[in-house]
Description:
Layout: E1 13-19, H1 25-35, H2 38-46, E2 49-55, H3 64-76, E3 85-90, E4 96-99, H4 106-120
Parallel strand pairs: 1-2
Antiparallel strand pairs: 1-3, 3-4
Amino acid sequence: MTSYHSVRESKKYQLIVFEGSDWCLNCRKLEQSVLSDSDFKAFLATNAIELVRVDFPQRNKQTPTQRVQNDSIARRYDFQGVYPTIVLVEAHDQAYLELNYNNETSTAFAGRISHGIKQLK
């Protein structure tokens, strides 16, 4: 997982995904249909978007440090416990936009992210 606090200078945006990787069915669908898709990964790279995954597993153990970091990110973006929640963040001024996932293809989701980027400008 990429550290939330280590935005690389070359990245203009962060796509923060709040997920329950070991129990959330829609999170798994998002992973399979979008996040693991090579075209979607290329879209992120081309648009200088860093993927940050904030996981709240039920069975898998996390370190206390990871739990504290995840809770801090959740508070910052007013995460309401709906999985998955996706937040598009402009890296420099920290403006953000919450996106939802509607079982769409990686291409359709990338299109919504592009639209979100325009809204943040």
